[in-house]
């Protein structure tokens, strides 16, 4: 899941499992490092809440504030509340900054190491949080948001790479999804903070933006405390240090075979001088297509639009001021718990089944929501009846649950396990860029779409769910339990469509890791 950098060395998925134990130091290291997921989740979950706070809107986005007042006085459309270009740019600037930062982070992960890249991310986060929480004008606010985006770019590049380099193969998949689990916990935390902060006038929004300091601080301290990965140390010629860390992580002095693998993998990966060019070769077409399409499809499920819009639906349940709290707790918990389902089942039932089942479930939920909202358009005084609104809430939960055990984690996991060793890092850079770009575009578009299509937006997303489910059915091969270095032989070559891209005479260069 997430990027492993734009350079061959970052692609190393060195297996450290011959003698390696799951040691306490390994677990502590991973827990510290995974706090970056909290930070990303907090950023994703935070902006929706802050941008609906009156004090915040009045200070920075007065036109949106006036519209909201009209809505509160039963005089405007709920769908068009947040349709403001500046507000959209505020939300999206984080993603744009993240895209640009990802490329710099590719460089730093290689030349400065994973650890230092995470420390850099932590400092970006802390600066962004301070600027945002202390913002006196739009300039400070936007700069803070851009810094946060840079933090996301650096952290999301280094952290998953770090986790996969220190994790034994047998728990690597689970660790990948653990990162997404942290993202969902971050979203939940942000929503809860928003709920409390919205009641504090006039500076609650500062508290809300400032609370991101907690995960930012945790990540920075964590990054300062952990050792760099053995792979990163060996890559930079610090072999003795690499050995020492390897012994510590594995809990044994017998690390010769792991060290040999790391050295060999380093050698092979360094032979590929231009991984991005290599990525464009015909035989790399299948994983490249998946990196791009899975990320675009993940956003076309409409998850972020739905997470954003749900509080309005909850208000119509008649929950009054507590609507957003219920929305945060219920949807946030469904998101977290269903991600746990994914961790449990992904290596048991496989990726395809999860995605296909979720496609059906998401389609039904979205169609139901469209039909119900078509009957009872939420506008002005036409509120939903209690029973109908409850039904819609159940459908939203059903939708979020299926997203959280399928497209949420698998949109990240599958690209990370289908690239060959020499292009894995470059491929992951593409993955994260496409994610940020499509999150950005769809976030921009969906607020306008919500305004113009109203409930039709759910129908729009349901159409895309059909497209992506058909795509999965015909084109996505099962990668469960297939060692990464055998993907080409065991997966692409056997697939009715992708086999035409793989040459028989191509010697796999990636046999340096053991399954
Ligand atoms: C997506 C985010 C989304 C989150 C929801 C992630 O996998 O990339 O865009 O907000 O899941 O849990």
From TrEMBL:
Segments forming a coiled coil: none
InterPro entries cross-referenced by the UniProt entry: MFS_dom, MFS_STP/MST-like_plant, MFS_sugar_transport-like, MFS_trans_sf, STP/PLT_plant, Sugar/inositol_transpt, Sugar_transporter_CS
Main location, first listed in the record: membrane
Gene3D superfamilies the UniProt entry points to: MFS general substrate transporter like domains (1.20.1250.20)
Entry keyword Transport: yes
Membrane topology per record: Multi-pass membrane protein
Residues of the Major facilitator superfamily (MFS) profile domain: 29-480
Organism expressing this protein natively: Rhynchospora pubera
Top-level division of the source organism's lineage: Eukaryota
UniProt-recorded name of the protein: Sugar transport protein 13
Keywords assigned by UniProt, alphabetized: Membrane, Sugar transport, Symport, Transmembrane, Transmembrane helix, Transport
Gene Ontology terms, MF aspect: monosaccharide transmembrane transporter activity; symporter activity
Locations listed in the record: Membrane
Signal peptide: none
Family statement: Belongs to the major facilitator superfamily. Sugar transporter (TC 2.A.1.1) family.
Membrane-crossing segments per the record: 21-42, 89-109, 116-136, 142-163, 175-197, 203-226, 288-312, 324-346, 353-377, 389-414, 426-447, 453-476
GO annotations of cellular component type: membrane
